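Entry:
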Amino acid sequence: MIVAFSVSPLGVGEDVGEYVADAVRVVRESGLPNRTDAMFTSIEGEWDEVMDVVKRAVAAVEARAGRVSLVLKADIRPGVTDGLTSKVETVERYLAGGQQDS
């Protein structure tokens, strides 16, 4: 499964980068495949391990902020691995004028 999530502290002002970095640090230290962009951090693995990382990432922000917002989206496809990379590669092939492998 792939989970894309965003965790942000509430009530701490506009500059939340330091808090978000705490959450991303948890994800990166998990050892699971992950990617962070301007809006979300995506992480790939089995249900229990991914949700545990998300929970710990939220806890890292919650430790410094009294209120936390979590947005989460999941792609649940049993048996699929390396979706974090392969989904992007498929789109890139189409953009390059190629076709998806059968």
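The beta strands are 2-10, 34-36, 41-44, 67-75.
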